[in-house]
Design brief:
- The chain has twelve helices and nine strands.
- By secondary structure, the chain is of the alpha/beta class.
- The strands form two sheets. A five-stranded mixed β-sheet has the order 5-7-6-8-9, with helices on both faces. Strands 2-1-3-4 form a four-stranded parallel β-sheet, with helices on both faces.
- Strand 6, helix 9 and strand 7 form a beta-alpha-beta unit.
- The chain is globular, with a radius of gyration of 20 Å.
Length: 336
């Protein structure tokens, strides 16, 4: 695969301005904060958002996640206690389109600073198959500059039509870095007394995400097959970033049962494309993956969509689990 350079978009800055964030004074001991802390209190919708808030906010923030460890985020129902906590917070950080009850609760909440990660990068629509097609049409790969130029001139991707957009942007380190930059700017505006630290912490996090991107780029450059099978279509952005094709047993909703025709199609495709492994995830039943693998003589392994960290996770944080994902992909795709 051709090596290409990735550029972290500065469009995130404009996106933050477009959010119309209310100006807040720096959090002080008399602020009505969740948990009555004297820090800048952030309620995050689920783990990838909470991780950003903690990394960027550092010692100045108190972060509460609405989704408990081990809880499937798509299924979250907001409690009365969480609604009250949201109302007392200084900021809400969420990803619109992933958790409908969170979208509704934050939309109705009086919290002044509402940061929607979906506005800080570009979202696309993915179905049960993602990646691969753009790579075939472009020998230069999915270069960031060309991608940005396409969007600027309104030439949308073939699957970017009306309908539900894929929210799993955090599984692409480059998109996640774009979101991080936007969150950092929002924190600086909402809590200006600590703006310098937020800026410094954001730069450090973006640097680590760029390093992770390079590890994936290099680690997946030379492989026997580009195709991998997952139970749930969470890895479309990652597939597109690194020239892979994700074939999902079900769609964006991990609980969707596949049709018999889809299972048969995957069995035939696995044989034709030299697929060795069916991936499942830690927060959802592995039954479908193991049934498909058993019928086709394939192995199973975990590819973690990082919607939450539990004792079963292969690592303690985003970076550790993403590196475990890279190793799992390298084994399954036959990298050299």
């Amino acid at each position: 695969m051709n090596v290409r350079r990735h550029y972290i978009s500065t469009a995130a800055l404009a996106a933050v301005t477009a959010l119309g964030l209310g100006t807040l004074t720096a959090c002080s001991s008399d602020s009505a904060a969740a948990g009555n802390t004297d820090k800048f209190d952030v309620v995050a919708s689920f783990y990838p958002m909470a991780f950003l808030a903690e990394q960027i906010g550092g010692e100045h923030v108190s972060v509460t996640s609405l989704t408990e460890p081990g809880q499937e985020p798509h299924d979250l129902e907001i409690s009365a206690k969480q609604t009250a906590q949201l109302e007392e917070s200084d900021a809400a950080l969420y990803l619109k389109g992933l958790q409908p009850t969170v979208d509704e609760a934050i939309g109705q909440s009086p919290v002044k600073t509402k940061i929607d990660a979906a506005t800080l990068t570009s979202l696309e629509e993915h179905g049960t198959e993602a990646g691969g097609h753009e790579e075939e049409h472009s020998e230069e790969g999915h270069a960031e500059e060309g991608h940005a130029e396409e969007e600027e001139h309104g030439h949308e991707h073939e699957h970017e039509h009306e309908g539900g957009k894929d929210p799993h942007i955090w599984l692409d380190p480059v998109k996640y870095a774009e979101v991080a930059e936007g969150v950092g700017k929002a924190f600086e505006k909402a809590d200006p007394d600590h703006a310098a630290d937020y800026e410094k912490n954001t730069a450090a996090l973006v640097g680590k995400l760029n390093d992770l991107d390079e590890k994936f780029e290099t680690g997946l450059a030379d492989k026997k097959t580009d195709v991998f099978i997952t139970t749930h279509a969470a890895f479309g952005y990652l597939a597109e970033r690194y020239g892979l094709t994700e074939e999902a047993i079900s769609g964006l909703d991990p609980e969707t049962e596949p049709s018999g025709a889809r299972v048969k199609e995957l069995q035939q495709m696995a044989k034709a494309d030299g697929v060795t492994t069916v991936f499942y995830e830690t927060l959802v039943s592995d039954k479908t993956a193991k049934t498909l693998a058993g019928d086709t003589g394939l192995k199973t392994d975990v590819l973690d969509p990082l919607e939450g960290i539990t004792d079963a996770s292969r690592g303690d944080d985003y970076f550790q689990v993403m590196e475990a994902n890279l190793k799992a992909l390298q084994t399954a795709l036959g990298t050299k």
